[in-house]
Amino acid sequence: MKKREISRRGVLKGSLMASALAGTGSFFGPWQENRVWAQGAAKPIKLGLTCDASGQYGNSGQDDLRGIQMAIDEINAKGGVLGRKVTWITADTETTPATGSRVAERFITREDCTILIGALHSGVANAITQVASKYGVIYMNTNSSAPSEAGENCSRVKFVWDGNGTNFSKASVKNAVDSIGKNWMLLTNDYVWGHTTSAATKAQVEGAGGKIIDNLLVPQNTRDFTAYLLKIQQAKPDVVATAIGGDDIKALREQVAQLKLEGKPAWINNQQDWPDVWGAPNSLFGVFGTTWYHKLALPGVAEFVKKWQATNKEGSIPVPGNVSYNGYMSTRELLKAIERAGSTNNVKIIKELENLKVSATDRMQHFDAYMDPVTHQMQQTIYLARRNTKPADNTDLYEIISWTEPKVAADSDATAKCKLIPYEQVPTVDS
Amino acid sequence: MIATSSNQSDSARLVTPAMLVLWLVLATVPLWIARVGLYPYLGIEILIWSLYALAFNLVLGTAGLPSFGHGAYFGIGAYAFGLCQFNVVANLWVCLMAAFVVAGLAGALVALFISHRRGIYYAFMTIAFGQIFWTLAIKSHKITGGEDGLLKIARLPADFGVTSFDLADNVAFYYFVLIVFALAVIGLWRLVHSPYGRVIAAIKQSETRAAHLGYHVWLYKVSIFTLSAAVSGFAGGLFAMAQLAAFPDVMSLHQSGYVVMMTLVGGGLVSFWGPVVGVFLFLIARDVIGALTNAWMLYFGLLFIAVVLFRPEGVAGAVTAMFEKQSAIRRQGHSAMRLLFGGGRWR
Amino acid sequence: MFDLLPHILNGLTLGLLFALIALGFMLIVGLMEQINLAHGSLFALGAYFAMQLMGSRPPFPAELAKAWLALPLGWRYAATLILAPAAVGIVGIAIEFCMRRTYGKDPLYGLLLTFGAAMVIEEMIRLTWGTRDYVLQVPQAVSGGFLFQDLIWSTYRFYAAGIAVAIIGLVWLLIEKTSFGATVKAGAHDSEIVRALGINLTRLRLLVFVFGTMLAAIAGIIVAPIWGIRPHMGVDAVIPAFLVIVLGGVGSFWGAVIAGLLVGLSVGLTGAYASEWSLLSMYVLLVGVVTVRARGLWGKKSVLEA
Asked: Which of B255, B218, B220, B222 is nearest to B236 (CA)?
């Protein structure tokens, strides 16, 4: 309620200034907002889905969207939340932060969305977070896995649902140092995500008694990795740990697969997103991380996959992957939290989400998951996988080789970096 | 303020009737923007991009220099504003000035390298420098925040000593940007119609002829590019305030291409107001079509092709041509169209 | 020295690929004095068409598709190398028809028209094939790796470099050693003489443009197995192509080839020894050269610098 008052006062102040400037006072008329109010208590809860449809993460953004929509459809089929229907609107955020800001402004001020969901690129996620926190609107960062999202760039209104580079390093490195070898080489995309992820790997390697013999920085948009692959062969490390993202990792995968370099040295990759993998399944190499897989031998997984397929018959991706899963989970848990809070008041929902605990069964993962109330990052099972040599069908690309408990993989340094503003400073939002 | 003599031509005025009409219309925007299905933030973005496009058109339209990497200066301005706020002093005027100066310096540096070059070589040098700045912005993440962006930039209050206005609210900030925009338009209008501006226009017609007339062509090319970069950076500073952050993406070739497109679709080559028309068209079309379909670039691309094919002088040029056809018959009258579009003809 | 050698070799093969990517762009710039910014999108389109032809669902009627799929992979690949560029050539015809209206005007208009075309093609690709990635299948003979100097090298890369050499050579022969080439060159520089000789200039320009788009498509097919296929790939190609032309100088065939090799070497060597600067190095190279030489390495006088 309060949010509307603020913006109405804003408009009022604006129009006074305008009339002073323009010398006309006759523009005052019935506010458009009044009509919205008149609809009363049964008006729907409106979500703004900020998903990329073009740019580098256009493909993953649309997969994210499919998961989010599925959770909304499910809840509406059960009669909605607090007896109200849930509606949504989406627009292409173009993998561009400036577009993210504008879309967020549009969704909040023009479309009356009280919650925003969806992210891949950390810059876009941050741009949206800035706008959301200005208005106090809750924002679900579904899939942006930069460690800084739950560290220095955390926010009281933002919740992070993906595992990050640090989580995956923690899950993979120690074992690999013990079982494969101590000489490591890093292949790092030369931007923030690459650097933070590689730094986490380095700390883990050195903590486990290994050593980093070289760190090759790879510029963003590199399409040809031959120089690096030659360099790696010359240096002969035991393990190469990559922190390569976006389209670059896809090109790297093609080239490593072509050279059949995946055996020696051993490769440890960070998280691979399913929409990226599906386009080029034969190029999967090394060990890589994920938060979920559609053939996990857990109750509920098969039913979930069937349901997802039923609503996405025409899509270019035949089964849900980690990106769609995160979109689905975050939205479902959000809607459940609203139901539990018994209110659409933003602070009440935030408190509900901060205390969120989801059982392994509900998560369709191996361990119980929980929301870290200090960093707002979902702490969940981290899986390591490699290319499946005995696939059950053409979508069965992963062989899951380990699952790590949330507590073991948790990013313990994030707590110190993240400072959330007190609840009183969050502008009130209600719908 | 307004030139009193009615038979004086627009180019000699400080404020033209077209400007007045435009400002008055823009001043009423917050009253009705929600009712036509848009929102105040879009108004802010349109004004900032209009300023940026006008600055860009100093180079493209006025001087006829093809610069395709102008996003760099817009972005540098945004970073300069943010970094000034965090590291120097959190004062609106100082930091906007910093955005202007730093972007101007970057522009001057580039101008030194490119101003002896022409045509395709000039164009690609601007692209190369744009790519270099863009890459450096991503690489220097300790300073710029890299792809995460330089976050938590505040909309600093407009402090006038005696009184201070809070700009945090979108509508308040809109009016602030509008006033700045109005002042900048006056400045640019005077610049274009000053003796200096006429030399620039002469260089556009023929560098050789201008040189033979004794003008130091290189110096003019350097100065106009520097000035354009500085004003673009100033707009970038405003954009950092609007977004509450600065990101490297506006510096990319893609985004630099957008400002070229807006300027040309609007008719920047023939009219002072062309860039503004183009920005309005582009941003509103993007918002409206973007809400209906994710493939808005397809429709805008087709529109763009159609403009280049059938109305290469852009929307403003087409409107002016229409007016001239009419006025050939009537030879008199001051239609609104003439006020808005006709006033800025270069020739 | 032995450490350096592989990187020089790598730089040269990469350079040949850059030269191949720039070839079609160069022809249109050099012979028509038009900048074709849709070059990258046509490059992408070539890769998509090839992927469709090589995939399990070729765009043919059922009977023909069956016969097509029965062919060995190598045959299909060879046929694709001709069919896909031909299909892209049709798109090229459409663009050239639009472009006619801009001839004789400021070359800026041609550039802008093709920029619009690039936007439209990229969006069409997205609508047709979606946002996902694809892989182009290649025959077994040219995939995999081989051992040389204790290092594993990509067979495909050397195959691609070889194709690049062959195509560059053929194009050179066509322009320099045939009467068609002579007419085309004359047409670019003095259209009145060509017209006086009774040669149809309109058709000549169409031919050159379509030839340029087909070369873009071939480059797309050759590079696709290394880069992968996605809607965005055109942008990745058009910028280096443009750079190579400007570096080499407008109107110079060998200038562009040498520029391609230089770019490849600088990207390859910095990749090995100062990896974070590898992509930036090509821009620095360009700025360095064009600062000293007004028309790139061997550029000729052109309306493109008016």
From this structure: B255
B216 touches chain C (CB under 8 A): no
State the span(s) of chain A assigned CATH 3.40.50.2300.
1-14+43-163+298-311+320-380+422-431, 165-290
Query: Which residues of chain A approach chain B closer than 8 Å at the C-beta?
Result: 10-11, 13-15, 17-18, 21-22, 24, 27, 32, 53-54, 89, 91-92, 96-98, 101-102, 105-106, 109-110, 121-123, 126-127, 130-131, 134, 146, 148, 153, 190-193, 195, 219-220
For residue A206, CA distances in Å to A174, A232, B137 come to 9, 20, 31
Q: Chain C residue with minimal CA distance to B306?
A: C113
Average confidence (pLDDT) over B225-239: 98
Q: Which residue from A17, A27, A126 is facing B149, i.e. has the nearest CB? A: A126
List, edge to edge, every strand of the sheet that includes A115-117: A86-92, A45-51, A115-117, A138-141, A158-160
The token pair at A369 is: 């998951």
Paired strand residues for C264: none
Q: By percentage, how much of chain B surpasses pLDDT 90?
A: 61
Taking residue B228's Cβ as centre, other Cβ atoms within 10 Å add up to 29
Does ipTM surpass 0.85 in this model? yes
Whether residue B319 lies inside any domain: the answer is no
Domain count, chain B: 1
Interface test with C, best of A223, A274, A323 (most C CBs within 10 A): A223
At residue A258, the pLDDT reads 83
Our CA angle for B58, B198, C303, nearest 5°, is 65
Is B273 domain-assigned? Answer: no
The CATH number linked to C279 is 1.10.3470
* Number of domains forming the structure of chain C: 1
Q: Between residues 108 and 127 of chain C, which touch chain B (CB distance below 8 Å)?
A: 108-109, 112-113, 115-120, 122-124, 126-127
Facing residues of A47 across strands?
A88, A115
Q: How far apart are CA B41 and CA B52, in angstroms?
A: 17
- At B347 the three-state DSSP class reads coil
| pLDDT score at A58 | 87
Fold of A165-290: Rossmann fold (3.40.50)
Q: Do the Cβ atoms of C227 and A190 come within 8 Å?
A: no
Domain extent, residue B232, equals 10-252
Give me the pLDDT at residue C201, please: 81
Q: Identify which of B129, B132, B264 has the shortest CB distance to residue C112.
A: B264
Strands A115-117 and A138-141: parallel
In a domain, B49, yes or no: yes
pTM of the model: 0.89
Q: How far is CA B23 from CA B17, B175, B177, C207, in A?
A: 10, 11, 12, 52
Cβ pair B171, A14 in contact under 8 A: yes
Using the Cβ of B39 and the Cβ atoms of chain C, whether some distance falls under 8 Å is answered with no
Residue B278 lies in a domain: no
Q: A1-14+43-163+298-311+320-380+422-431 maps to which CATH number?
A: 3.40.50.2300
| Domain boundaries, position C181 | 5-305
Q: What is the pLDDT along chain A (431 residues), one digit of tens a residue?
A: 334 333 333 333 433 343 343 333 333 333 333 334 344 557 899 999 999 988 888 889 999 999 999 999 999 999 999 999 999 999 999 889 999 999 999 999 999 999 999 999 999 999 999 999 999 999 999 999 888 889 889 999 999 999 988 899 999 998 889 889 999 999 999 888 889 889 999 999 999 999 999 999 999 888 899 999 999 999 999 999 999 988 888 889 888 888 888 877 899 998 899 998 988 888 888 999 999 999 999 999 999 999 999 998 877 789 999 999 999 999 999 999 999 999 999 999 999 999 999 999 999 999 999 999 999 999 999 999 999 999 999 999 999 999 999 999 998 888 999 999 999 999 999 88
